[in-house]
From TrEMBL:
Protein name: 5-hydroxyisourate hydrolase
One Pfam family here: Transthyretin
Family to which this protein belongs: Belongs to the transthyretin family. 5-hydroxyisourate hydrolase subfamily.
Lineage of source species: Bacteria, Bacillati, Chloroflexota, Ktedonobacteria, Ktedonobacterales
InterPro entries: Hydroxyisourate_hydrolase (IPR014306), Thyroxine_BS (IPR023418), Transthyretin/HIU_hydrolase (IPR000895), Transthyretin/HIU_hydrolase_d (IPR023416), Transthyretin/HIU_hydrolase_sf (IPR036817)
UniProt organism field: Thermosporothrix hazakensis
Keyword Hydrolase set for record: yes
The protein's role, per its UniProt record: Catalyzes the hydrolysis of 5-hydroxyisourate (HIU) to 2-oxo-4-hydroxy-4-carboxy-5-ureidoimidazoline (OHCU).
Protein EC: 3.5.2.17
Length: 117
């Protein structure tokens, strides 16, 4: 059995899923390697898991969430420079058979995350 990686983003300023937020997935090692760029759908989730099958393996990774661009697209008045721009979350996958879920709860001024299920 192979595991998989998922994410979703909730806009805590408006109390809605964060639709159309850009997310980049990076594999970390001696170099930082971009694996993919995706966007959230209407439910704040990506259409497909970020990693699954042979792509899903032990290692260190980083998700970067384009928070400033998301709120700017909603015409939220933000300072220049904004308090939050790109929000990075670095994490490790130790068990290649598990489901790793990384939610992001975000406003222009704060964010939180945890390992979800």
């Amino acid at each position: 059995m192979t595991g998989f990686l998922t994410t979703h983003v909730l806009d805590t300023m408006h109390g809605i899923p964060a639709e159309n937020m850009q997310i980049e997935l990076w594999r970390l090692g001696e170099t930082r390697h971009l694996l993919k760029t995706v966007y959230t759908g209407a439910d704040g989730r990506t259409v497909q898991p970020l990693l699954q099958g042979e792509e899903f393996r032990q290692g260190r990774y980083e998700l970067t969430f384009a928070v400033w661009a998301y709120f700017a697209a909603l015409q939220v008045e933000l300072p220049d420079p904004p308090f939050l721009d790109i929000v990075p979350i670095r994490f490790g996958i130790a068990d290649a058979t598990a489901h790793y879920h990384i939610p992001l709860l975000v406003s222009p001024w704060a964010y939180s995350t945890y390992r979800g299920s």
